[in-house]
Amino acid sequence: MQLGTNRxxxxxxxxxxxxxxxxxxxxxxxxxxxxTDTSVDTADSTFTAIIGDPRNDENVIVSQFHHAMLRFHNxxxxxxxxxxxxxxxxxxxxxxxxHHYQWCVVHDFLPRICGAPAVNAAIASVTAxxxxxxxxxxxxxxxxxxxxxxxxxNGYILNTSLPPAASTLAGIxxxxxxxxxxxxxxWVVDFNMLFITAHPVAGSFNNARKIDSVLANGLExxxxxxxxxxxxxxxxxxxxxxxxxxxxxxxxxxxGVAPMxxxxxTSGLPPAEVALLNSNVGILLTKTPxxxxxxxxxxxxxxxxxxGPVGGRIVAETFVRMLKRDANSFMNVPGFxxxxxxxxAGTFTIADMLEFSGVLVQ
Length: 362
Description:
The structure is a single chain. This protein has helices at residues 60-82, 89-114, 116-125, 138-141, 169-174, 232-242, 248-255, 262-266, 271-286, 290-302, 309-325, 350-357. By secondary structure, the chain is mainly alpha-helical. The chain has a domain at 90-181 and 196-245 and 289-339. The longest helix is centred in the N-terminal third of the chain and has 26 residues, at 89-114.
């Protein structure tokens, strides 16, 4: 896979193996350029990311993770070439990359988000014949999987070269836009500051916020939004209403889970929020919007560390159902276990994937 180049604005990204800052040169996704000189912002270059989904170039962290996945693929190709693989190298590389990424999602990401019991229950209980029809559940897309909005920070430290004040939430989006492209070398992300890796960085504090009903202030002014639709929470709630989502209590009833009580839903909230929930004869406490309900049950029942029984089940079962119905997923390879190098034998994590990709050290 082609990689993109960086405009030289000094050191950034991961440190060298000796722990020193370096200036990255090829730590970007490939972009549409008018010429070979990437140091010049030429008028007829669009700098559009040459990737399958433009949303993966939405902000600098997501874009840099896509770049890491390109490197992951390339490292697998190199592995196959070294091993003199006799078949179609691209096809085999795609299979290895896909299976290991899917393994990371099921065995690393989902247990952290949903809790291991919810993931294990989904694997054991979900029935989805290979090739069966699948539609993304609206309860997942518009409510449960939007739990991540509450985990976003107001600011991030992307590497040891940028001062903390530079890495605001607005900057994370701003620095992946024309005319600030190709990506400046000093804005290259050091993923050692976002994941637990073998190369910890002193002073890193990018841990996600807890899952709760409190959103970062920066999400009250979404780029491109206006009025109330510029506030992410309002947008989520209105979208859920427009699409006719069930209430949190309704979803709990379908799952056979005891719904949260009014006392639980209001526990620890500021007076103004409690008053709002109690308004209109308390209808929001008996028919709570699903997105808000998922956030509150995570905070009240799981201390904000993972999703609760309703949110966790929706998220875990959706992923498992997608994978079970896909004939090409790792779940339909009998006895599949990761084959790429990992820090713990028999497993494979996102940190292992980043290590193998070569993006953790320059």
